[in-house]
Amino acid sequence: MTRAHQSDNHGSLQHFVLPDAELLFWPEWLPQAQAERCYQQLAHELNWQQPAIKIFGKAVLIPRQQVWMGDPHCSYKYSGVLFEPEPWHPLVKQLTDRVNQACQSQFNSVLLNWYADGQQHMGWHSDDEPELGNNPHIASLSLGQKRFFDLKHKSLGTQLKLELGQGSLLLMTGPCQANWLHRVPKMAAATEGRINLTFREIKQKTT
Ligand SMILES: O=C(O)CCC(=O)C(=O)O
Ligand SMILES: [Fe+2]
After folding, report:
1. Among 130, 135, 171, 189, which is 20 to 30 Å from 204 by CA?
2. What ipTM was assigned to the predicted interfaces of this complex?
3. Which residue ranges does the record assign to the Fe2OG dioxygenase domain (predicted)?
4. In the predicted model, is pLDDT for residue 120 greater than 50?
C-alpha cells in the first residue's frame, strides 16, 4: 500500500493509495532545527485566537488556538462562523510558496492551529467547505510536539493512524475530503506544544 522513494532534498516520500483517497507524506520535509525556529517564531508573532463555534446551537470555545491567514478575498466559513483572513506573515507566506512547489498546488490561504499540550485536540471532520470546491488538495505542515493524526473512511470504517512529527508534510488528495474524516486526538503523553499549518485553496468569494 505504501512505497517510499527519495524526493529532492525533502527526505523520503511515502505514497498511500487508499480507497477514495491518496496521501503523500514527507516525514522529514523540514530539517528539525529549521522546524523548531519556525515554531518559536509563529508561536510568538501571530495573533492567536480561541474563538467560540456553535455545536448543536451552543457556543463553545475551540480546544486549541488558531489564526486564519491568506489573500484578502479568502474568507472562510467554519462551524457557523465567518473568518476574515489575517494578512500574510512573511514566514507563513514563504512556507506556503515552498509547499505549493512541493505539492504542485495553488494554496492561497492557511489555517494555523496551535495545540498547547496533549489535552488540546481537533475532533472528527472533513475539510469539505463549499468554498474549497470539489476534491480539494489539503496540505498539512507540522511543527513542534509530534501528535497522532487519524483518518476514518465514512462508509467503510477503514482507519489509518499517522504520526505527524516536527517538520512533516502531509498532502491529502483525490476524493479524500468527501469520503474520509480526520482528527487530532488528545494524547496524555504530549506535554509540549504543536503548531500545524493546513494549506487551502479558496476558489470563490464567500458571501
Ligand atoms: O492539526 C492537524 O494536523 C489537523 C488540522 C486540521 O485538520 C484542520 O485544520 O482542518
Ligand atoms: Fe482538517
Report:
1. 171
2. 0.99
3. 106-203
4. yes
